[in-house]
Amino acid sequence: MLGMAFWQPPPRVCVGKRVKPSPASATELDLPERRELALWTHARLCTEYGCPVAFFATKDPLSELISSLLSHRTRNQDSHRAYQQLRARFPTWDEVRDAPTNEVEAAISPCTWPEQKAPRLQQILREVGQRCGGPCDLEFLADLPIPEARAWLELLPGVGPKTSAAVLLFSTLRRPAMPVDSHHHRVAQRLGLIGPKVGEAAAHKQLAALLPPDWDAQQVYDHHEVLMFHGQKCCYFHTPACGRCPLLERCPFGQARVNGVKDEQEAKG
Ligand code: SF4
Predict the structure, then answer these.
(1) Is pLDDT above 80 for 5?
(2) How far is ligand 1, taken at its centre, from the CA of residue 9, in Å?
(3) What confidence tens digit (pLDDT) does each residue in 156-167 have?
(4) Could you tell me if the CB of 188 is within 6 A of ligand 1?
(5) Ligand 1: distance of its center to the CA of 53 in Å?
(6) Where is the signal peptide (predicted)?
(7) Quick one: which atom of ligand 1 is closest to the CA of 234?
(8) What is the C-alpha to C-alpha distance for residues 214 and 90, in angstroms, rounded to an integer?
(9) Exposure winner among 52, 152, 207, 235, fewest CB in 10 A?
(10) Which residues of 30-67 are buried (b: 16+ CB within 10 A; e: fewer)?
């Protein structure tokens, strides 16, 4: 992806101590402060990783829905391989729906839990057809208000807020709905954009409420992508590299961590 291609870690000190997330000050900011912090974070990370970020997918919405379901708790390269194999074996979604389930399972074997995902995919394809009253590629979601489009998708089995947002944003619909993955969620929590007990599902509404309502799909996509990149490349789960982080000055988790290391060194020295 564009932002990933030229990003190089700046040569700053890496603080490598493993710590637990600190609840300190994560919920102390009021809404206007968190909105301002979200925009500041966006600007810093866009400078770091490069915006606009090129969209990585050009799938129609139904294909994006299937792709998102295959990617659940699966490495990108494995879910990509599962998707490609499925498309090669069954050229149309109607064929996937009507195929023997064990053949669908075999086609998606590179992803996790193919034995659960195969019947789930077929169930979803049947329900989409029933609810649309016939062949349906989900293009009609372009004409619904975003909350209604998400609610429609989330009535499907196994579809939550991350998948519904991914279908609207990543597919050719290109609508401004923001998914929150585990990297995005972790960075937002450590910065104090959301509280320490807010889970990934609940974070979708809270983090979306921090963004300007008139942001277009590219801006929403950039925001999600740069937070995700940051979680992948700097704000690691176990040993975040706070010493080279461009967000350190406003990150309570990073400040506590860096100062904790300094205090430890002073106590020893
Ligand atoms: S300072 Fe940066 S790397 Fe460290 S916890 Fe905060 S956001 Fe993550």
Answers:
(1) no
(2) 14
(3) 999 999 999 999
(4) no
(5) 22
(6) none
(7) 3
(8) 40
(9) 52
(10) eeeebbebbeebbebbbebbbbebebeeebebbbbbbb
**Residue with the two structure tokens 């998400």:** 150
Q: Which fold has domain 2-54+179-259?
A: Endonuclease Iii, domain 2 (1.10.1670)
pLDDT digits (tens, 9 = 90+) for 48-100: 999 999 998 889 999 999 999 999 888 889 999 999 999 999 999 999 999 99
Q: Encode burial over 151-185: b for 16+ CB neighbours within 10 A, e otherwise.
A: ebbeebeebbbbbbbbbbbbbebbbbbbbbbebbb
Atom in ligand 1 nearest the alpha carbon of residue 240: 3
Superfamily per CATH, domain 61-170? Hypothetical protein; domain 2 (1.10.340.30)
249-264: pLDDT as tens digits: 999 999 999 988 666 6
Write a three-state SS string for the chain: CHHHHCCCCCCCCCCCCCCCCCCCCCCCCCHHHHHHHHHHHHHHHHHHHCCCCCCCCCCCHHHHHHHHHHCCCCCHHHHHHHHHHHHHHCCCHHHHHHCCHHHHHHHCCCCCCHHHHHHHHHHHHHHHHHHHCCCCCCHHHHHCCHHHHHHHHHCCCCCCHHHHHHHHHHCCCCCCCCCCCHHHHHHHHHHCCCCCCCCHHHHHHHHHCCCCCCCCHHHHHHHHHHHHHHHHHCCCCCCCCHHHCCCHHHCHHHHHHHHHHHHHHHHHC
